[in-house]
Design a protein that fits this description.
The protein is mainly alpha-helical. It contains seven helices and no strands.
């Protein structure tokens, strides 16, 4: 069973399809999810708090010159692929569906499907 697209090609298509603001929404959704599932872990709220918000907003203002938003998008994409087929996947998908703009969520689903679907 071969894949229609490599993970790298599917991610590149996703990255190219989203603007800076949409990538920022992915970064914030990833942060919110990590805070939700990591409750009680010491230091996690500090690491993903005000400094995180400031870094994401700065990346937006600078048109993601340093690639911070791209890295966050890639982490979200990789997490979605990793969780596909697990018991946590349905919860993760519901979370993303409610925390991302609908068109961004659809683009993410397309990218995941493109690298995991069998060749016709």
């Amino acid at each position: 069973m071969t894949r229609i697209a490599s993970k790298r090609a599917a991610f590149k298509a996703l990255d190219d399809a989203l603007c800076v603001e949409e990538k920022a929404s992915c970064a914030f959704a990833l942060r919110d999810y990590k805070l939700t599932v990591s409750k009680g872990i010491p230091g996690i709220e500090d690491a993903l708090g005000e400094k995180f918000d400031t870094a994401i907003r700065k990346a937006q203002d600078e048109n993601d010159r340093q690639g911070i938003l791209r890295m966050a998008l890639k982490e979200l994409y990789e997490d979605a692929i990793y969780l596909a087929g697990t018991q946590e996947n349905a919860e993760f998908q519901r979370f993303l569906q409610t925390h991302l703009p609908s068109h961004v969520y659809e683009e993410l689903k397309v990218a995941i499907a493109a690298c995991s679907a069998p060749e016709a």
